[in-house]
Amino acid sequence: MDILLVASAFNSLTQRVFAELGDRGHRVGLELALGDDPLREAVRRTAPDLIVAPMLRTAIPPDIWSAHVCLIVHPGPVGDRGPSSLDWAIHTGATEWGVTVLQASGEMDGGAVWASARCPVPATVGKSDLYRNEVSDAALEAVLLAVERFASGTYVPRPQETSGPGTEVCVRPYFEQSLRRVDWASDPTETVLRKLRGADSQPGVLDGLLEEEWYLHGGHAEDSLRGRPGELLATRSGAVCRATVDGAVWIPELRPRRRAGGPATFKLPAALALGDRLPALPEVAAPGEPLGERSAGLRTWSDIRYHEDGQVGFLSFTFPGGAMSTEQCRRLLTAYRLACARPTTVLVLGGSRDFFSNGIHLNVIEAAADPAQESWENINAMDDLVEAVLTTTDRLVVSALGGNAAAGGAMLALAADQVWCRSGAVLNPHYRLMGLYGSEYWTYTLPRRVGTEQAERLTRRALPVTAARAREIGLVDVVIDSTPQDFGSAVARHAARLASAPGTQQGISEKKAARERDEALTPLSTYRERELARMRATFFDPGAPYHALRAAFVRKVKPSSTPDHLRSGTSPGAQPLTGHSSGSL
Ligand code: COA
User: Fold this and answer.
1) Residue 499: CB within 6 Å of ligand 1?
2) Is 202 in the pocket of ligand 1 (CB under 6 A)?
3) Residue 585 confidence (pLDDT)
4) What ranges do the domains of the chain cover?
5) Domain spanning 179-277: which CATH class is it, in words?
């Protein structure tokens, strides 16, 4: 079918729907919802069989939904209505939630139901992690079913009220900041954490801190630090620890409140955001740092962790938004080197839920006194890490992607001997949209995996790739079909099997020999120098589009029109959507 996606942004779920429908042979195009007239024009131009809105913050005009079936993905169970469904799910402590695919109608979220799916709500995850994982899985299931039902030509969608037992309509209002406010003098730790998780990653919890107003982003439990409620107690790896009435929480990122008429603000690691305002606080390492090895039962936050099980080492890391600053790359490299000093046969890199990595930290770069220099240091720190992975020849290294990876973060994964990926992950192995040539030794690793032609296509087209498609083209080796919560244990089982497999020792010897052969042909340093020469030229050219693209990205500036590669583009599996005149269905 010809399917037009309409979305407020080409966000993670929209990317996944776009790529998954394309994999199934549909012709898919995308139009950003930037106004009724451009949308009308896109519908006229593409004459789609079906319109699907995976993430839409505005209403589709009546003349479009009365002439075309428009399916709206609502991130709430059948009967749920309103713009803040997931915020309410977390606020009310729901353990199960759902996604409903509705037909657009005159009533917001009130249309007939084409399909729905349920999903669990794990107790400790933030809202955007929930959205990119459990909700995304449920949304895909419901969208695919709805598309199939529409294609059958016979399915009649059901009014919400008659869609099954327990589906009474529940309209929940916009989730105001007043509901998110933390009362440090009385809210117990669990309440504070729930408020922080319900606001993560956006909009954050507005709060007063050190005489100024900030949005708090992210929240994690602390085991032992205690103090006067509301007081800052310590820093750790850029995060700050703040006392509650019965414990303390770690807050990784802050964003200053935007002043009236002032420029948009953006998130930064908390200690960096506070800068000189930060009082003298102890830097309290997590138990077991820098490697991050820890005793079972501890909840305290750290963004890098290590543990071993038999012959397998697991080095996991979780950076907000998957962004890796110079400092984060360096800490991960230190931990990686320590992990490599352990007597293991297999080292798993990653394996946590959600983002694997999205490359260099564009927000930290944007905030730097000299963004060009910070870009340069960040890419070098990324390259040092990638180089360490590429030159590990005494064990097998596995990248385990529980969630999405993009740009240099996707290339970091490719440095490992094997890439394992959760079935719901979406990969964006390209840099073009940020105006960059890219580094992370991608000119070595990407063609090595997919061939020169495919590498050129992936980087030029700059489209998202599903895990299944990535497996087909050799970008990943293993697709792990698990829930987001079970991914870690599934990886552990696969890794244990790999470590004890009869061919593994020989595989390690062969990889060492292959690395030596490749090095003799073209040294790794040559790839790095060539890539970095291009990156340097971009970073230090104030007129290079990268600087404006980065500034717009971190401030979430809406594009003025739908990018051409999405409008005419389609996922790597299918044909472009250009309207019926260009080809038969
Ligand atoms: N630096 C800083 N922040 C980043 C980031 C990066 N490299 N990549 C993602 N983020 C942040 C986003 O700003 C967003 O923040 P929010 O939660 O406050 O809204 C969050 O991570 C999630 O990203 P988002 O864009 O909402 O996710 P998505 O799944 O819709 O899109 C990407 C994912 C990777 C396609 C998109 O984030 C992107 O293009 N990132 C930049 C990649 C890049 O160019 N890296 C630099 C070159 S190596």
Assistant:
1) no
2) yes
3) 24
4) 2-155, 179-277, 304-490+497-539
5) alpha beta
Phi-psi region at 435: left, alpha or beta (left = phi > 0; alpha = psi -120 to 50): left
| H or E element in which residue 314 lies | strand 312-317
- The pLDDT tens digits of the residues spanning 141-153 come to 999 999 999 999 9
Element (H, E) at 537: helix 524-539
**Stretch (H or E) spanning 571:** none
The residues with which 307 forms a beta bridge, in sequence order, are 314
d(CA 385, CA 379): 10
Q: Write the residue with the smallest CA distance to atom 40 of ligand 1.
A: 358
Q: Which of 77, 103, 80, 98 is nearest to 156 (CA)?
A: 103
The residue type at 177 = Q
Domain spanning 2-155: CATH 3.40.50.170? yes
For residue 160, what pLDDT is reported? 86
Token pair 């949005």 in the structure block, residue: 215
pLDDT per position as a tens digit, 77-104: 999 999 999 999 999 999 999 999 999 9
Same fold? 2-155, 179-277 = no
Q: Is the CB of 345 under 6 A from ligand 1?
A: no
> Taking the chain, what is the end-to-end CA distance rounded to the nearest angstrom?
6
- Is residue 403 packed enough to be buried (19+ CB in 10 Å), middle (13-18) or exposed (0-12)? buried
Using an 8 Å Cβ cutoff, are 463 and 19 in contact? yes
C-beta neighbour count of 209 within 10 angstroms? 18
406 within ligand 1 shell (Cβ under 6 A): yes
Say yes or no: CB of residue 8 within 6 Å of ligand 1.
no
Q: How far is the CA of 375 from the centre of ligand 1 (A)?
A: 16
- CA-CA-CA-CA torsion sign (485, 147, 406, 83): negative
Fold of 304-490+497-539: 2-enoyl-CoA Hydratase; Chain A, domain 1 (3.90.226)
Is 434 near ligand 1, meaning CB less than 6 Å away?
yes
Distance (Å, whole) CA 472 – CA 146? 26
- In short, whether 128's Cβ falls inside 6 Å of ligand 1 is yes
For residue 503, report the distance from its CA to the centre of ligand 1, in Å. 39
Whole-model pTM above 0.85? yes
Ligand 1 centre distance from Cα of residue 97 (Å)? 26
CA of 340 to the centre of ligand 1 (A): 29
Cβ of 267 less than 6 Å from ligand 1: yes
Question: Best substitution site from 358, 383, 566 to test ligand 1's pocket, by max atoms within 8 Å of Cβ?
Answer: 358
The minimum-distance atom of ligand 1 relative to the CA of 382 is 48
Cis omega (within 30 of 0) for bond into 290: yes
Q: Answer whether 375 contacts ligand 1 (Cβ < 6 A).
A: no
Say how many Å lie between the CA of residue 56 and the centre of ligand 1.
19
Query: What is the torsional sign of CA 476, 478, 484, 486?
Result: negative
| DSSP H or E segment with residue 33 | none
Q: Whose CA is nearest to atom 32 of ligand 1?
A: 406
Q: Please, is 76 exposed, middle or buried when counting C-beta atoms within 10 Å of its C-beta (0-12, 13-18, 19+)?
A: buried
Cβ-count burial of 510 within 10 angstroms (0-12 exposed, 13-18 middle, 19+ buried)?
A: exposed
Cβ neighbours for 382, distance < 8 A, ≥ 6 positions apart: 324, 329, 359, 360, 408, 412, 439, 440
Q: What is the mean pLDDT of the chain?
A: 94
